[in-house]
Specification:
Helices cover 35% and strands 21% of the residues. The protein is of the alpha/beta class.
Length: 298
Amino acid sequence: MPWEAATAADARRSLADLFVAPEEPIPVGAVQERDVPIDGTRVRTRIFTPEGEGTFPILLWFHGGGWVVGSLEESDTVCRSLCARTGAIVVCPDYRMAPEHRFPVAVEDCYALTAWAAEAGPSFGGDPSRIAVAGDSAGGNLAAAVALMARDRSGPRLVFQALVYPVLGMPDDGRPSYDAFAEGLFLTRHGMEWFAEQYLGGPVDARNPYLVPLRAEDLAGLPPALILTAEYDPLRDEGEEYARRLEADGTPCTLSRYAGMIHAFFVLPDQFDDAVRAHEQVAGALREAFAAPARVTA
């Protein structure tokens, strides 16, 4: 696997070598890029606008890759699919990654980009009153953390969070799915340990709920959630535990386990029919959230 490489640079090159862009990208109304000023730097951000006219809801999509690998190019198909299926503008930031930028840089970038979208949304046709966050794997981790930050920092207001096989705990937390699927199914225990080693700045970070959302004492006051898990995935149990905790704390959450699927299936719709079904499930939940009166974060 690319993340079994010796260095982050090697892992990124290996993943890039595996990536094959589709011959016919999913059509959307427009695609543009902006360099958004964040914390003394500029974050390259790709904005996908649906066909049609009007003011559109906004979805922040945070790509996966263990906070170390992944790119806008490798996220293009998912962003196009969600844009076309939801009728929402999809904003995908090329957030800064580890190990060059360890926690909390990635999550602060993603929070800042969400706040930027809430402020600048009208400049690219977006509706700041209808903003959701979503992501897969480490991107699901970032989406969950941004939802916590938005609650704790009194904004921006979010109407939904969609977390696709998210990272919500740590490899040494002792959940059975880590033992059952430790090897041989795309994402391994060793791979997750390597990712965590790259991202964490020190042991204390593993207790921070903005890195490990399951460490949060209270999950009330968050936007409604959809969590997708894969049956054969080390991360399965933590995603399902987070769903139960959200419900227990009064945050509506729908949980769907995709039987027979492995980690990363969602970003491979050309290989898994269930990925197409999952795209539509996420899009359907987002369409419903965008159409409903906003349920704001506290």
